[in-house]
């Protein structure tokens, strides 16, 4: 029994899928399955069962997995406390993050981190996915927080840390729009509607692909500011597309002035968020400590 196995169990619980969990952890499905099977054999209880809705806990798993989660939480607190007592955790930490993480989990994590490590000077920049990847490659930052895509070529010099965090996408529409009553939408369904484009790399690439084969969307304007995006949709100026992560705790969703509708291709896949750093990093302990704060402040 080891902490790695417990992290694997947590990932399967969160993703409800061996396939998705292995992708997030960047290990093979067989390695993940074997590790969990070995753990189950050791404790003499099966934790998961496959069903139509995904990989879910067994009845015994429902009783045992909460204890596993408590152990992981205690392990994380132990590491954080031990690290905070270590005089080696000093210096600077340079981080680059995508907008969706910067507006959600990063502020909470950074606030907790700075309380525990006031001696660490942290600087954060906001950047696009590919830019973050290249900044890590060029060793211009210590940690990149981004959505890891299939086309990113991870070589042996890089360390990938799963954040155990994913996000899907929704069409956001005014609450009084006829589109608000749809169970799901496609880009074809909204092609003629006034559209406000969130001017970020992932959105631009997918919209450009669609327009290349199906013709242009009725783009009213573009913005890099999430507040402008949500406020404009709430005011009835148009509709847009946003990630589930951006919709967390959004006041316009909470006050029901806008609503979110699932969308199909090419926005129907979930993206997995990860931390990226160089293996030959003299700040490895500091890097892993900050990653643990991100994981614990989702």
Automatic annotation (TrEMBL):
Residues 1-58 form the HTH lysR-type domain. SUPFAM superfamilies: Periplasmic binding protein-like II (SSF53850), Winged helix' DNA-binding domain (SSF46785). PROSITE patterns: HTH_LYSR. The keyword DNA-binding applies. Transmembrane segments: none annotated. One of its GO terms (molecular function) is DNA-binding transcription factor activity. It comes from the Bacteria. The keyword Coiled coil does not apply. One of its GO terms (cellular component) is cytosol. Keywords: DNA-binding, Transcription, Transcription regulation. Belongs to the LysR transcriptional regulatory family. This is LysR family transcriptional regulator.
